[in-house]
Design goal:
Largest sheet: 10 strands, mixed
Oligomer: single chain
Distance between the termini: 36 Å
Strand content: 15-25%
Number of strands: 27
CATH topology of the largest domain: Glycosyltransferase
CATH architecture of the largest domain: Alpha/alpha barrel
Amino acid sequence: MEHTFHGKWISNEIFANLRARNVFHRQLEKVSLDCSEYRNQHVLFRKSFSIDRDFSSAKIYISADDYYKLYINGRFVAQGPSPSYHFQYNYNEIDIGEFLVKGDNLIAVHTLYQGLINRVWQSGDLRHGLICDIVVDNFVILSSNETFKVKDHSGYSEMGTCGYQTQFLERYDSRASEIGFEKVDFDDGDWCFAEECHFDDHTMSKQRSRMLEFERISPKKISVNGNRVFYDFGANYVGYLSVKAKGTCDDIITVRCAQELNEDGRLRFDLRANCKYEEEWILSGREDVLDWFDYKAFRYAELEMPDSVEIKDVTFLVRHYPFDLKARLKDAYANSEELNRVWDLCIHTQKYGVQEVIQDCMEREKGFYLGDGCYTALTNMLLTDDDSMVKKLIDDAFSSSFITDTLVTCMDCSFMQEIAEYPLIMVALVLWHYRVTNDIGYLRYNYQKVINLLDAYRRNYEKEGLLRNLDKWCVVEWPKNFQHDYDADIREGKICEQAHVSINAYYIYSVHIANVIADALGVDPYRDIESLKSVFYDTFYDAEKKLFRDKEGSEHISLVGNSFVYGFGLCPNDACKENILKLIDGYGIDSLSFFCTFPILMRFAKDGESDRMKRALLNDGAWRRMLREDATTTFEGWGKDTKWNTSLFHLTMSYAAVFLLDADLKKLFE
């Protein structure tokens, strides 16, 4: 049930009087947004209130734009919300009975307006504020209004950004007067009163996905080298380095984090993923606690400090989406030590990598990507029997149709990118969700959206039965060095005028999926697929070589182009299928990457190719290579040097677990 807020959106004097900025546009439109006027704004709120009787239930309904961390009576409660668009902006419903007391209480909220155009939030749009209601025994006893106190937090200053302007590196100053603002006895006498946001245009929607969970990981190894202390937490995680320290006022601790070590054993804090995890912490002279606001993905940490500093405690405050493993490894693979290691690698990646959304990589982008995110979300659902991340991805992807009727690449953010294959992959995810959950209502809810999407592709790009003139990037396979010299001009940032085999294979497969969904719903098929196949074969099939050419008018044949033909069941005859299998066997699965590998494994599962499946999963250059290179989470590719900015915590390749788990994949992919 949706909550109707009594509270108002409130902020400080500046943000309360700003009108929202439009950050949305098509990718190829030449739009320049200067969002430098307000960025990295940490805004605090406090409000005391009383409960004059015993109570049996208490909830808070709360949201903030871009993000909040909530404290009640000095205790951390939760943080959120999950990224969303302003017209269906997520709020959280949280049980707070254990945090409240009869008598005097305090709510304190730390909010962030990041202000960057990136893949994380819909930020840079000048929307900031807090909204909340506290409901005790079904009565609203407190609502956000102009009696809340507000103040900017001076303890966070930026040390540049990292990744694709993904986050600010933080200089955290424990001398700031706002330290301890969440405590009941904190003096906020010099704070201003909040103002109602005069031009607020949020429409609120209850967050359907769950809140993050937190756990503390202790170091597995600690070593001291002069004025540096080194910590190894045993594996890559996502979260915050938590440190207690005491030193002299103005002492500075340099904090470095890394996912791997250099050959000399020192931290490689300048990550391969173009994030330089090096920050500063200024001490107050009291016993201080490092309180990062934004998270990082790392395994190792190092503190470099003056001799006067004493470190009291160091842990890794890890955050992740709730994960309860329900699946198990297939019996046929149980005796393979290597496959058990691959399974464990995928499980750890899924458990600690999925956050409030299905993210791409955990450091450089932090983005809610469609495409490969479909495979990650499917994996998560099969492992946990929890479909909330799949539904979050599908719902939010379709919501992006207000930008373009053929959807965007990265949802719930202000970074505009479009990749042609990604929405078509999601069409299959809609069907896979139904086959796992049997939720016919959700399938019916999405069917017309699927049809609207495919109609938009047909209207905008289909000409004489083929997709052409795509004003969207076609990835095909990524990175480029895995494209096998694919002979179509698919560079980002331009219109791909050519009809090429990969995108048209995706298109035919998605039309097929739409027809399968229609059959499940007992309605007429979406459209005839045979005419599309006929044009596809006439254009791309080389009848002499019994393989498919990359593009119209070309004689070039690649493994990449034929991978999609095989994976999506488009081989016109057995001879063609055998020729493609010879290519796959000859090159090996490690010659491909994200987007070709999944359809191939999917077809292996559907066709009962158990030997080929096992060979692929045990390929020495694939997941086993990651393990040889000391992976604790799946990489952005098969090895650390796969690409120029490889993430060592990238969720997509955890989809190996789909093909390792004990499930009827033939039924799923039929």
